[in-house]
Design brief:
The protein has 7 helices and 7 strands; from the N terminus they run H-E-H-H-H-E-H-E-H-E-E-E-E-H. It has helices at 14-19, 70-73, 84-87, 101-104, 125-133, 145-153, 200-207; strands spanning 55-63, 110-113, 137-140, 158-160, 174-178, 183-186, 192-194. It has a 7-stranded mixed beta sheet with strand order 4-3-2-1-5-6-7, with helices on one face. 37% of the residues are buried. Keywords: Lyase.
């Protein structure tokens, strides 16, 4: 079980959790001293707890395609790149019709797509390239199992929703989603569906900034 409390720097990016050991120590509430303060194991005061957001509103990308594999998301010719900041420019660069995705996407955008997203070989860059670009969440009808695990472990928000077509999405629609309840709503037409919400374990990983 993950200890009570959370990493002091609650803004730690998902790629840091996925690729490097977090530099900040986990903190636990100290026994009450009568002054209401909390301390780390080392005895230092910790900052006030502030959970990571569980609700997002962003611009939709509706990619109506199944079986988008990791090579389409992040081509294998770029696998020598280890700097997260450089990965974003290659996101979707091998997916026909979306070669310019990296130059058009905006921070906070939400991707909607079909079945088996992230199929194929395991490569963390296929998750981290979206983190680099500031994508808020990916919602797919289903995910490749390895990709799903990599995203969860890196605390990158993903949701599975079989009823995406019921949202009647258009590119650029403003969409609201809640990873805690699974609610997804198209603010343009008010149509809504319910995705599989984060499990308790997934939420703990997310709130801690990643598994590692």
């Amino acid at each position: 079980l993950i200890p009570e409390g959370k990493i002091e720097d609650h803004e730690i990016e998902a790629w840091e959790a996925a690729n490097y050991e977090a530099e900040e120590a986990l903190v636990i509430p100290a026994k009450s001293s009568g002054q209401g303060s909390n301390e780390t194991k080392a005895g230092k005061k910790k900052s006030a707890v502030s959970l990571r957001v569980t609700e997002f509103t962003g611009r939709a990308w509706f990619i109506k395609q199944d079986d988008i594999d990791t090579d389409m998301i992040f081509h294998n010719r770029h696998l020598t790149i280890t700097d997260i900041a450089e990965m974003g420019q290659y996101a979707m660069g091998n997916l026909k019709g979306y070669e310019s995705f990296a130059t058009e996407v905006q921070s906070g955008d939400i991707i909607f797509t079909g079945k088996n997203f992230g199929a194929g070989s395991s490569r963390q860059q296929a998750v981290d390239c979206f983190v680099s670009l500031g994508v808020s969440c990916i919602v797919a009808e289903s995910f490749g199992s390895i990709y799903e695990r990599n995203a969860i472990n890196a605390a990158f928000p993903i949701l599975s929703a079989e009823m995406i077509p019921d949202l009647d999405l258009q590119d650029g629609d403003e969409v609201y989603l809640n990873i805690k309840t699974g609610e997804i709503r198209n603010n343009r037409n008010k149509k809504a569906v319910t995705a599989s919400p984060f499990s308790e374990v997934q939420m703990e990983i997310y709130q801690n900034g990643g598994l590692f």
